[in-house]
């Protein structure tokens, strides 16, 4: 069985876990003294630790070994995803983390149904990213940024915007060794002016096939073509 994984603030010889992380290891995974735990700091350092003691919900670990580890894509992959209504963004954050995204920036555009996001929701999305990073064996937890209006997207080095009716395929334009920025639209799609704006910022419109994908499916299809599809 694979050792449990725990996200810790930093890797030190003695690690003390409390709160949510300790609760998960103790109550859900039933960790006990002597068990091995893979610890990671979310910034690229990973290690092997042994559970030394469990007392009043506090878990003490002894670090045996640590190493620089990476199952990361190798170049920054940022995703400008339209702010979505309900809980749809949580599913996008979870799967995008598994697919190797490094930064997720919810964006607000003309046809967005949702126009704002509360602080609690942002916190929850960040927890979803941390949990998905842990479960998928990532060593870096992607950043979930505060929502920004689409017009604040800066110029990018290599950008792809999924746009219904575009003809270019991702594999025809993708340069996998360069940092990449991706953009997908809201339930109502991008306006033509917004697509022009993104093109001006360095994004190339690409197709995701002949069908219309939901606003929560499109970011994952686009990301999968860039990372999973390239074996990254
Ligand atoms: N009626 C809208 C339109 O024509 O743009 C549909 C929007 S779709 C539900 C939401 C977003 O998913 C789009 O803005 C686009 O970014 C992406 N998308 C969905 N299907 C796509 C496709 N076949 N090719 C490229 N992008 C697509």
Automatic annotation (TrEMBL):
Pfam families: Methyltrans_RNA, PUA_4. GO terms for biological process: rRNA base methylation. Gene3D superfamilies: 3.40.1280.10, Hypothetical PUA domain-like, domain 1. It is an enzyme of class 2 (transferase). The keyword Zinc does not apply. The keyword Cell division does not apply. One of its GO terms (cellular component) is cytoplasm. It is found in: Cytoplasm. It catalyses: uridine(1498) in 16S rRNA + S-adenosyl-L-methionine = N(3)-methyluridine(1498) in 16S rRNA + S-adenosyl-L-homocysteine + H(+). CDD domains: RsmE-like. Its EC number is 2.1.1.193. Residues 17-61 form the Ribosomal RNA small subunit methyltransferase E PUA-like domain. Keywords: Cytoplasm, Methyltransferase, rRNA processing, S-adenosyl-L-methionine, Transferase. Residues 75-226 form the Ribosomal RNA small subunit methyltransferase E methyltransferase domain. InterPro entries: Alpha/beta_knot_MTases (IPR029028), PUA-like_sf (IPR015947), RsmE (IPR006700), RsmE_MTase_dom (IPR046886), RsmE_PUA-like (IPR046887), tRNA_m1G_MTases_N (IPR029026). Belongs to the RNA methyltransferase RsmE family. PANTHER family: 16S RRNA (URACIL(1498)-N(3))-METHYLTRANSFERASE, RIBOSOMAL RNA SMALL SUBUNIT METHYLTRANSFERASE E. Specifically methylates the N3 position of the uracil ring of uridine 1498 (m3U1498) in 16S rRNA. Acts on the fully assembled 30S ribosomal subunit. NCBIfam families: PRK11713.7-1, RsmE family RNA methyltransferase. This is Ribosomal RNA small subunit methyltransferase E. The lineage of its organism: Bacteria, Thermotogati, Deinococcota, Deinococci, Thermales.
